[in-house]
Amino acid sequence: MKKIAILPTLFTLGNGVCGFAAIAFASKITPSYPINDLDHAYYFFYAGWFIVAAMVFDAFDGFVARLSRTASEFGGQLDSLCDAISFGAAPAFLLLRLGQDWQAPAVRNMVPIIAALYMVCAILRLARFNVENSPDPLAHKRFKGLPSPAAAGCLATLAMLRGQTPEILSEYNSFLHNFVDYAAPLGALLVALLMVSRVGYPHVTKQLLRGRRHFSYIVRIVFVVFLIVLLQNLALQHVALIVVFWGYTLYFLGRHLVLRGLSTRRAPTASPGVDEPLPR
């Protein structure tokens, strides 16, 4: 290996740096801090946003590699190593901080196990992706299993909701605090299993932007973007991101289960073989 693509490599390394920054901010969170302690709350907030920033770098490195026609095996391996940090280790470590307020020892001891399972599933997901897919970004039109950035986004948005509750919801601080405490471990367990599953998930950017579409399709995209911007202006950007990541995760899981149920019902019953006696 004598030459590497500079710009895609820098974007990929930016992904890894953001993952490391998320771990650094999460490490500053101490157990049993007051709900209204803004310093600790912002640590959750920034850790979550650095994971989201890692997703932006992860999306752009493939885009730049495709434009410059510099996709390579080196770039694919480097991308997976950085993804293991940003979408494997960083969300798992953030989950440890989200679950450290549990008083029951049995439940508190389960959170590290779920966090370790999440990280292991993310690494397995990335390794399987490397084996089964081409390094060419154009080949990645559909994923087998939940993509690791989407799984990390599910946990990051919960941390952001916990970290900086908007002023409009300030009276529900305690409720949201408890909600995240319950939702984070259960959600992490769900997305960990989905990452190593065979549930089909589309590549969002390629599904949205490729080819020609009807006018109504453009109207729906504009409406969704407008809704996200509106929620952000209402200081509810965390809610918008939660809807995006968890909606993507749960919608295609539900769609897979429905289609599988329909195919099972329509499957014809096997006829008896030639040498098998007919039932009397």
C-alpha Rg, in Å? 21 Å
Main pleated sheet? 2 strands, antiparallel
CATH top-level class: Mainly Alpha
Low-confidence stretches: none
Distinct helical segment count: 9
Strand content: under 5%
Give the strand line-up of the largest sheet: 1-2
Q: How many independent structural domains?
A: 1
| Structural class assignment | mainly alpha
Q: What's the CATH superfamily, by name?
A: CDP-alcohol phosphotransferase transmembrane (TM) domain
How would you describe the overall organization of this protein?
The chain is mainly alpha-helical and 280 residues long. The chain has one domain: CDP-alcohol phosphotransferase transmembrane (TM) domain (Four Helix Bundle (Hemerythrin (Met), subunit A)), CATH 1.20.120.1760. It has nine helices and two strands. A two-stranded antiparallel sheet has the order 1-2. The protein is globular and about 50 Å long.
